[in-house]
Amino acid sequence: MNVDLKNLVELQQLDDTIRSLEAEIQSLPRKIAAIESQLTEHIASVEADKKKIADNQKSRRKREGDITVLREKISKHKDQMLEVRTNEQYRALQHEIDFHEAAIQKIEDEILTEMIESESLERQLRSSEKNLREERARADIEIRDARERKQQDEEKLKEARSQRQQVCSLLSEQIYSSYERISAARRGRAVAAVVNGACEACHVRLRPQAYNDVQANEQILNCESCGCILVYVAPPVAQ
Question: What was the pLDDT predicted at 1?
Fold first, then answer.
């Protein structure tokens, strides 16, 4: 293979590696942020469950206080009944007592409903806390792995850039400039393989003479359709 063509192929491989590493390095902080955001949502969900239980308990305590007040009123009315002088006053006090007792019954029913709801909320909280512990452990591992991957990628990227400089130093300014121009026009694809007689970049078949010239890999040739530098890749040998 032509030495310059070989160096161009290696340069293309290095550029592909560099772009891939740069993309992954940029994506890892977003991945970590997404993991942390999801974990924050789960924490908020657990805190919301805790608040529901606290509100439930607060409501029950208030209702129990209301019952205490009503019982005190009933007791007071019963004491007053011992002192009344007319049936009308007696019936009025009895009406008040019946009214308060009905209110107590209604509040007790509400407390019972809240107690049942509280049991359901506590089961939900236990499940949420268990899921959160598992999610936190999983998130810690994923974040640690992502940070380690980012560090490894940065080291690989540094090495790939160093290798690129070495390869570039072996190319003439004219050849390198041509490579960069094609790469910029083709979104990073300057060198394309010829597979089964067609350019891998644009999928246009080469003319027979051009195909014969490319197969030798002894000169730098460009695709007549897309302009990519062509390199012949022999088909795999059948077993």
Answer: 85
Q: Where are the domains of the chain?
A: 20-168, 173-232
Predicted confidence (pLDDT) per residue in 47-85, tens digit: 999 999 999 999 999 999 999 999 999 999 999 998 888
DSSP-derived pairing of the beta strands 221-222 and 229-232:
antiparallel
Instruction: Please give the CATH topology (third level) of the domain spanning 20-168.
Output: Helix Hairpins (1.10.287)
| Helix count and strand count (H, E) for the chain | 4, 4
Residue 142: other Cβ atoms inside 10 A:
16
Nearest-angstrom CA–CA distance, 190 and 26 = 24
Sequence-ordered list of residues with C-beta below 8 angstroms from that of 104, at least 6 positions apart, any chain:
67, 70, 71
CA distance 236 to 67: 88
Is residue 39 within 8 A of residue 31, CB to CB? The reply is no
